[in-house]
Amino acid sequence: MHNQEMVPYDEFSMFGQNIEEYSINASATPTVERVGVQLPDGRMVSALKWGEGEPRLVLVHGTAQNAHTWDTVALALGCSLLAIDLPGHGHSTWRDDATYTPQNLADDVAIVVQQLAPNAQAVVGMSLGGLTCLVLTDKYPKLVRHLVMVDITPGVTSKKAKAVLDFINGPQTFASFDDLLARTTEHNPTRSATSLRRGILHNAHQVTDGSWEWRYDRRGQINSEKTNLETESPRSALWDAIARLQCPLLVVRGGASPVVDDEDIEGVKQHYPSAEIVVVDGAGHSVQGDRPIELAAHLRRFV
Q1: Catalytic residue among 46, 127, 224, 257
Q2: Considering 217, 285, 286, 298, which one is annotated as catalytic?
Q3: Structure letter (DSSP) for residue 70
Q4: Which of 33, 76, 102, 236 lies deepest, with the highest CB count within 10 Å?
């Protein structure tokens, strides 16, 4: 693929690939639309609204991802749900201060949930999205009836998440799509080429000279990582938030992920003894990408 070739992109045209890869009994043209909520400061938070009627679930992705990371899960579930692009990701507006913490993201997500999914039966968050949903549940408990945290706990550290951060902190721009695909494949060796190509098209965009760059805001990655992963005070506050939970909690751990370890799971049990813990064998950090059918089954059962 040469630099000058412009690659067509239709975000709703690839669901058939998800269906074929995972043998899902679903329509290749599901009911899904892009919606948005304007925040008081003028920023826009974008989301994908799946199905008809009020969303039963809210799905929130991790750092450097976007709402399409949940496509296969959404197709497998076949219910009405809302998948949010966090600020600074996907089609949502970037923050002027380039700081993306669970605390400030939760305030933005609360506005979106209140407007678009106020009666959702569960809020599901992966990685940064999981910590964001934890803060959301703590600060806005009436919006969350069940909480699911996917491969994340307040015990996360930069050391545990090193493999993930190494990928996120790589180059911002690539001369060609093939270069971007090669790097993505290197860091995701168990994924199919079709899946990775689809993910790149959703999470990167081609500029006028034919090169490619990620969609997400990388300006604040270093600051956000230190705030989220290396500072004891925010982690302590997040553990306290787990202890204050008033709704059922499910923690989904990727069986092959280094991000959540046994000590983290013990921490969850100590702070919230009734929490349900499940391990998805063969899944890395992005359980929704590695084992989406299994994750969908756990969500269906839990809610």
Answers
A1: 127
A2: 285
A3: G
A4: 102
